[in-house]
Amino acid sequence: MITFTEFAAKKNLIKDSNILKHVELLESSLSKENFKDVSKNMYQYVFDEDPDEDIFTGHKFFHTKVVKPSFTRVDLMEKGLHAFRMVMARHAERLRYPGMTEFDTEGVVMYENFLSEEDHEK
């Protein structure tokens, strides 16, 4: 999985190398226990403001008629808001459900003999 820091460096989204290093340290320290605080701190460093409450939700502006202001701001989009949200969602999933390497690499998980013979015959 690509990290936000790798993506930001590759796309030159964060010009200040000190901020990039700090965000990289924060991102590498993510855990189930500190996720909310570290994510918010990363957002503050990357976007130089406090995050709107909708940033860390599954809200998708194109699926609703209610468009949240944060998702219409060109400056945030140019700084990588969409990538930030995608990568942070993947970090959250990884921390909640570790051990799905097969799904992450193959895109599918196969469970052999999931049903008993009796259930299978029904």
H-E string:
HHHHHHH
Class from secondary-structure proportions: mainly alpha
Mass-distribution shape:
elongated
Oligomer status: single chain
User: What's the count of strands?
Assistant: 0
Question: Given the structure, what is the number of helices?
Answer: 7
What does this entry look like structurally?
The protein is mostly helical and 122 residues long. Helices cover 52% and strands 0% of the residues. The protein contains seven helices and no strands. α1 packs antiparallel against α2 (17-28) and α3 (35-47) runs antiparallel to α5. The model has no long low-confidence stretch (mean pLDDT 87).
List the helices and strands and how they pair.
Layout: H1 4-10, H2 17-28, H3 35-47, H4 74-78, H5 81-96, H6 101-106, H7 117-121
Helix pairs in contact: 1-2, 2-3, 3-5
State the main characteristics:
122 residues, mainly alpha, 7 helices
Task: Describe, in short, the structure shown.
With 122 residues, the protein is mainly α.
